[in-house]
Amino acid sequence: MNLEKNTYYILASAQLFPFISADIPVDNKNEPLRFAIESYQAVQAENYTQAIEIYSKAITMYPEQPFFYACRSIIHRFNGDDESAFYDYQIAKRLDFNYHHFIEWLENQGEMLESDDLLELHNSTPYQLDEPQTLINRAMLQVQHFNYAEAINDYSTAFESSKDQTILISRAAIYTHVLKYDKALADLDLVLSGQQSFDAFLYRAKLYIAVKEFNAALQDLESAIALDDTKTTAYEERAQLYEQLEQFDKAITDYSMLIDMNAEDFYPYVLRADVFEKTENWNSAIADYTEAIRLNPYYSDLYQYRGALLAKIGDTSGAESDYATFQRLEEED
């Protein structure tokens, strides 16, 4: 694995997003990075039309890169073109869900009224703010208010005071949300250099998935499961990765493990049903949707999903019944 040649990682870490302060990389041999620099400079010069043209050209050449869609979305929104902005945002989010967190942060930072709890912590005495736990508590509240920069500062101060490396996992999570993948990875690597941590392996695996380093992600997920095989999060993450890689048998195995671990949760049945659909195992998919409906009979979409499959296998009356239930539940909402 060579992240220095990984364009997903490079573009996010360079932070050359419109209206965000960033340093221009000196080594720009990577062609997508050159597009990012040119468009960033166009935005700095307030030449937004040129910036959109560069982003559009980059998208044509590198349609798999979420960075360019996100940047064009930001410019479209700045120009008041909300429809185009939303279209590009949806593609960026589909390619890497962290871009959803990033754009959500851009839209909400500084917009929320601070809660009483956060105001109280802001007014803490200097002595209280010397306590790492006070800083950690404030950081968690800052995240809820989309004050990510302030949360990072609080986690950093708490870490410097306590040297508790688990704090770095929380900081890495925020770095990931704001697409500072290099900083997130540095924090997680530091934690794992000193200890075996389920959460650090899990978060690093998610980061590797975001930048399409799938083998490294699988290794970290396996390490997380080896440390604690009672937690469902690693199984779900691995199942979704197997599904993305079209290794459907392995995905079904992991979703089945989730079901065995918590048979009263309807959602793993839905996830497994979706894989059964992809493998055209209609009856197994229908059985899973039926169990999901038993566990959550008021979730209208489940009837629509099952109805479509019943229609596919020729059960017209079952399909019509499910569609009718779907419509009734929708009207009741």
UniProtKB/TrEMBL annotation:
Pfam families recorded: TPR_8
Domain of life: Bacteria
TPR repeats: 198-231, 232-265, 266-299
Protein name: Tetratricopeptide repeat protein
InterPro entries membership: TPR-like_helical_dom_sf, TPR_rpt, Ycf3
Record has Transmembrane as a keyword: no
PROSITE patterns: TPR
Keywords: Repeat, TPR repeat
